[in-house]
Amino acid sequence: MVFDPQLARTVLHVGCGVRKPEKLHSLFRSGEWREVRLDIDPGVAPDIIASITDLSMVADGSVDAVWSSHNVEHLYAHQVPVALAEFRRVLKPEGFALITLPDLQAIARLVAEDKIEEAAYLSPAGPITPLDMIFGLRSAVARGNEHMAHRTGFSAQTLGKALMGAGFRHVKVSKDDAFNLWAIAYVTAPVGAVDAS
């Protein structure tokens, strides 16, 4: 499909990192979506240089979706409501946020089994241990990238509560087999959805 700026919907890709097509969720990889990349690190050449706690350069109700992959856990707990409220603010009334981040309950099972430093899976960055999932990719932090440190964490329940607290009307949180939580949070409950409030 060819990109048509007149028909395209906009996805704000927060914490985008280095430009790689596979970083954009498959939902947004069609001609109907236009990606706007936002990151705190100017070195990754984002469209917008900003923290996810201050999206003031993005107008209220101006994007159709927010895509956040492994970003929110890098905030301190007191910053999470601010960031989620910013996600909510920039979305159009029919918009939604798609968020993925580590599942602390799944990770805790490995910790309880004393597998804290064993590789849980292999990523493009190398082996990932429970300690990496809890505290951030230690090899990246050791190289000086302190943005990679994790400062908070979530269960499915706490993530859902945080999104509802930020003003989303309908939230669904699920888990995968790779130690991740996935949340889709709608500004307005979609047709046929049960109101989550």
From TrEMBL:
- Give UniProt keywords alphabetically: Methyltransferase, Transferase
Among the GO biological process terms of this entry, one is: methylation
| GO molecular function terms noted in the UniProt entry | S-adenosylmethionine-dependent methyltransferase activity
Q: InterPro entries per the record?
A: Methyltransf_11, SAM-dependent_MTases_sf
Extract the CDD domains matched here.
AdoMet_MTases
Q: Where is the Methyltransferase type domain?
A: 12-99
Q: Which Pfam families match?
A: Methyltransf_11
Report the protein name in the record. SAM-dependent methyltransferase
